[in-house]
Structure formats: C-alpha cells, structure tokens
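User: My collaborator and I are trying to settle a disagreement about how two of our proteins should look. Neither of us wants to argue from intuition anymore, so we agreed to look at predicted structures for both before our next call. Could you fold the first one, then the second, and keep them clearly separated?

Assistant: That sounds like a sensible way to settle it. I'll keep them separate. The first protein:
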Amino acid sequence: MSRTNYLCSLLLLLAFLIPTFGCGRHDSDEKFIMIAVNNQLPYWQEAKAGFMAAAAELKVQAKFIGPDTYDPKAEQKALQDILLQKPSGILIHVADPAVLMYDIDKAIAAGVPVVTFDADAPVSKRLFFIGTNNYQAGLLGGKRLAEELKDKGNVVVFTMPEQTNLAERLRGYREALARYPDVRIVRVVDIAGDPRVAFDTTAEIIGKEGDKVNAFVCLEAQAGREVATVLNDRKVQNKVVIAMDTDADTLDWIDKGVIAATIAQKPYTMAMVGLRMLDGLYHNKLPRLDVDWSKNSFAPVPAFVDTGTALIDKSNLKAFREAKESATKGGQ
C-alpha cells in the first residue's frame, strides 16, 4: 500500500471512530435513533448507555425507541414512524428480518443510513452489521458445554429461531458438539420472546424426564434465569446450564453455582461504535447508499464489525461486575 493510500485509509477510519468536538461540525437538527425490542431488559439498557455516551462525546441528539416487549410488528411501526422525521441515521436490532426488511430498504431509498446491530437483516440493503460473531459465540459455548458434561449428555436448547443471530449461535453449538458424539441436542424449544416458556418447559422436563436431560443451553438473555429458578426451586443440582448475556439475575445464578457460565456480548460497545460510525457516515456521505458494499473490494465501509464475546464464570465474575458498573455509570 502506498503512503498516500495508507493515509487516506487512516483518515477514513478516524472519521468513523474518533469523536470530534470542534465547533460547527454538527447541525442543529442532526439526530440519531437506536431501535430494538424488549427495551426494558438490562441488555438494552446497557446498549442505551453506550449510545448515549457516544452522543454526549459527539454532541449530537440521540434517542432510543421501540417496544418494551418482544414485538417485531411494534418495532416495525417505530421504524416507520421515525422515518417520517428523516433522522440522520438509524441503528437497529432486527427482531424479525421478514417483518423489517422492507422498511429498512425504504429508509435507504430515502437517503437515511441504516446500520444493523446485535441481530442482522443480511438480505436487506442495510449498510453493514455491528455485533457479535454469533457462530463463534456458539462454538465458545459448545466447547464449554462439552467440558462441563465431560463429553457425554443430552441437551435442551432454548432459542427464537427466526432471529438470525440465534440461528448462528445454534449452528456454532452444533458444530462444536459434532466433535463429541455422546453430547446430543435432543430438543430445541422456541420461546417466542416469552421467558415463561423456558420456565414451564424446564419444569415439565424436570418433572417427567429429568434423568434424561443433562444440560440446558439458553441462546438469548431471558431463558437462563428461568431455567436456573426452576432448578433451584426443585433442588436439582446435577444439571449444566450455559446462559447468554449478563443481566443481574444471570450473574447471581453463576455466583450461586446454578449457572455454569454465560457468554457475554458487548451491547455497550455495539451501540457506541454504531453511533460513531453513523456520525461518520453523516459527515462523510457515501456516493450511494443502495449498493452492496460487501461485494466491493474497495468498499468505504466494512461488511461486519465484530465487537467480540467473553465467557463469564465464577473465576472472572467479580472483575466483570466491576467493569460493567464502571462503564454503565459513566466511570470509564
């Protein structure tokens, strides 16, 4: 790479990722929107903290919207309503690609940059995806599951199969467990956004066939604490639980030894980086939005920004809690 090309690439990256505080950079009507579902969950409050921290650094207006329940149709309505205001950019968690794809494409056609995060709509015209490499997260969880089971046991998985991120996690688990023929996924349960399904299904399994199921894997944030509650209430101590994400209840159940481990994503980082990159796109506009840049070897934007994962168990729980409290309370 020539020195000139190197400097151009560096300047573009800086435009996306480094906050600029100079006077006159931002317009008075510059406003960025983050959209998700189940917004009361601690996971999304953590994402909101990252989004608002970036907004404060950049001195831009920012708003977090969407339903407080798992409701893709309500999320679609929120997206449609906000498009009428022509925001400067949208960061959206895609609860159901089939429901949201048309409106994402409509936003792009209207000149509004859309970036997906946490859960993607890969066949839409969104610019790129920021989040977890969910396949790798599944591999990480599957490896730990096999270790906990000592390479043998039957597993029940709780998921929402219509979400692409959860489908990728399950694919990672399946491939990790392919190395362990005596570890078998015997049932995959769609909780359809309702954690009570995980609670009721676990209670049913423990009551009727508890000796036939050795582990529970939760591919989303809500199911882990439900499974742990059932096991604790019934004083069942010989089951392995691998959870997802780091809400307070999940961390407490790790502390108590009911959940073996959880896979931590970085919603704070996703949202912070997402807003910085949307701001960069607003001030350094692409020649066109309706282009599949992922197929362009000289694309001005990435196809995927992997924010990483970490496995949290008793060994690093205290350090994780301290770091999380510092970040979400502004003590960065």
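The second protein, kept apart from the first:
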Amino acid sequence: MSRHADRQRWWAVAALTLAVLTIGFDITIMNVALPTMATALAAGTDGLQWIVNSYILLFAGLMLPVGAIADKFGRKRLLLIGLSVFAAASLAAAWAGDTGAVVAVRAALGVGAAIIMPSTLAIIAVLFEPAERGKALSVVVMGMGAGIPLGPIIGGYLLNHYWWGSIFLINVPVVAAAMVAIALLLPESRDPDPPRADLLGGLLSTAGLLSFVYGLVEAPDRGWDDALVLAALAGGVVLLASFVWWELRVPRPMIDLRLFRLRLFRWGNINATVASFALFGLLFVVPLYLQFVLGNDAFGTGIRLLPLIGGFVVGVGAGTRIAGRVGHRLPVAAGLFLTGAGLAIGAFTDMASGFGYAATWYAITGLGIGSALTPSMDAVLAVLPPERSGSGTAITMTLRQAGGALGVALLGSVLSQIYTADLNVTGLPPSAAAAAHDSIAGAMGVAARANLPALAVDAQNAYLDGMTTVLGLCAVIAGAAGIAASLAFKQGESRSRADLDVHETATRGV
C-alpha cells in the first residue's frame, strides 16, 4: 500500500472519530441539562425520563437491521445518512417548544446514532488488516469515550451562559466537519453478495429490542413487579426468541447468529457487554455523588470525571498494544479484574472520603474498562469477514447498549430501594416526603427550602449507602467476568484453526 493511501486511511479514522464523538456527548450531556429543561418546559418526572429514554430505545432497537442494511446498500452512504439525521434532529431539538417535541427529536437522535455506530465499526473492519485494526479501533473508541466527560463539562458551561437548546447545537459543527471529511476520504464498501431483505427478521428484532429495553428503562420508576414492565420484558423475550428461531432457519438471515459459535465472537461480545454494564452503571451513580454529596456544580462535576476518562484512554492504548502482542486473553481478563478492583475500592467510600480518594478509584476503574473494551471489540472484528462487518458489529453494539440499559435499570433499582429505605422523612408533609424519596436532588431541594440541614445530611448518607452497594455489586460482576475471560480465551489465541473452520461454515449461509 502506498504511503498516500495509508495516510488517507488514518485521516479517515479521524473523520470516523468525529462522527462518534457526538454520541459520547449525548450519553452524559443530558444529565446536567435536565433540571434546566424541567423548569423551561414545565416538564414532570415522566417527561424528563422519556427525554432520556427515547434516545436509548431507538439507539438499541434499530442497530441490528441497520447493520444488515449497511452491508447491502453501502456503509459510507448509510453513515452519511445517519450523520444527516443526527444533525437535523439536533437543530430541531434546540428550538423544540415543549416536552413532547423534545422527546420526538431525541428519538430521532437515537435513530441517527443507531445508523452511525455500526456503520463506523464496519468501515474500520473493511479498511484495516488485523495488524492495524486494533489501533484504529482504539482511536475511535477513545473518541467516543472522550465525549462522555466532555458532555457534562461542555453542557455545564453552555447552560451557565446560554439557553438549554445550545447543548444540542454543539453537535452540528462537529457532525458537519465529520460529513465533509467522510465524503472526501472514505471509500464506499458493501457486501458483494448481500442476502435478500429479511423483513420478518428486521421486524422481530426491532420490536423485541424496543419492548425489552422499554421494560428495562421503566422498571426503576414503576417497579419490577409492575404489570406494564413485566409485559414489556416478557414480550421482548418472546419476540427476541422468535427472532433467533427465525434467523437460524431462514435461508439468508439478516443476522448470521451462527457467528456465536466462534469463541472470539461469543466471548468478545460478552466481555464488551460487561464492560459497558460497568461503565454505564458508574456514570449513573457518580455524577450525583459528585454534585450532591461532594457539593460540586454541573461544570465542576464534569471536570472531576477527567480521572475516569484519563484512565480509560490509557487503558484503551495499553489494551490494544498488549492484544497485538500476546492475544486478547491477557488485556481483557486483566482489564476486567482492574475494573472490579477499582469498583471495590469505590465501595468503601464514606462521608469522610474526599475527591482524592474518588479520583484514585475512578482512574483505576477507567483503566480497567479501557483495557478490556477495545480488545473485546477487536476480538469480534477478528473473526468477521469484511462483507459481513456491518451486521456483525451491529450485534456487538446492540448487546453493549442493552447491557448498559440493563445496568442502569438494575443498579438504579438497587440504589433507589436502599436510598428510600435509609432516608428518614419523619415529620415532613406528604408532598415534601415524596419529593425527598424520589431522588437525592429532591431531598436536597426540600432541605434547602425548609432549612433542614439534618435532612440534607441524611439524604447524603442514604445515597452513599446505595452507591457503595451498587459499586460492590458491579465489582463482583466485573471480577466474575474476568475469571470467565481468563478461562474462555486461550492464551495467545487470535484465530485458531478450529475457529476458522467454524467461521467458514458460519458465514457461508445454509
């Protein structure tokens, strides 16, 4: 390959990194904007939840069919369409006039994100040979990871100086630059022999994922025994089971589920999902701790997440280099063990712990997640033929989003139950007690309005009890996943002869 062509490929990676940076923003930027939007839009708790969850629902629900569509009609073309949808929805969101409009455009942002992510990873699989693919993937993952702490930092600054719609406008110039670069630098790629449109498979996968993720995101608020939550979860399981049954029998499936016979594909997906579970769980509990227990504002909270992203960036680079030398087993297992260790340290946080203690376990946890995540995703790409890279990476991203949603739902329920049980609201009027039980933000607001410093301290302690329990639970899950990874991956294994034999069978079709 000529030096010019090689340089152009890496410029293309920079363009892809810009494309996913905005998705990283949207994971966290809403966390700091919701209080302001609640006032400006007169939005209730349900409305605010749907502003967040509509994005997650569409993001997770559409990636499987989008990956197959990208393989058939062209990954570059679909990526440009996804970026166009994302930019248009961002513009519409900035001037949305009521809660319903914001929910709708947030759903459109989820559609754009569902197109961008699998298309981006599929393009990397096509552009790079195994020797360089891990490095290219790590750059893109770091780009998305960088958007996570930048969301609160940029969002906090914009909310202090402009109106709430400005948090959406920040996406537009980034997306525009990415579109220009992608149009100029990326070659088109597609499956030369795409399967016929699997309409039933697309319908079953989308409906099943939407139903299942809907049940997950509603469970913390409604309760796990709520009839609607149970119906959504059960319906999702039935639809997804039907999808699996159909895909294993249709002559040309939308998603070739036989790829899960491959050890690297199967365990790469499992470990990436666990890493996402830990990351999303951490991002769910930590910002509220920084803001309401340690007393930082939105901008300060974002700044104090930098040790987490610093560790993450170092871990991504280290994991990629180690995987390239000795295989996937060591960095994935070690990364998951480090993640568990960092979370276990965090589980011993008390009211006397300052930010120095928090920064230490943030950095360790970020280092572990970064070390495990990129080699896990590279393990998946290692066994995907280029023509199926879109549908294969769509499976990975869908599982990661579902794992993240499951993490927030399960851990949110645990945190909420402990916080509610520990908080003493004796003597408060019913409305004030309900507001205090609803969240630590509500309790701190009640304490400030009624001049009840004891309530504020009690709420902080109750939240801390719930947070440390959640961190301990995450530590156990990450440690167990580390043990499984050390046993599942063979040392030095990248593509064993057995895996290659299965791969040839799995990707031929029936």
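Some points you might bring to the call about the second protein. The CA atoms of residues 340 and 476 lie 7 Å apart. Residues 199-249 form one domain.
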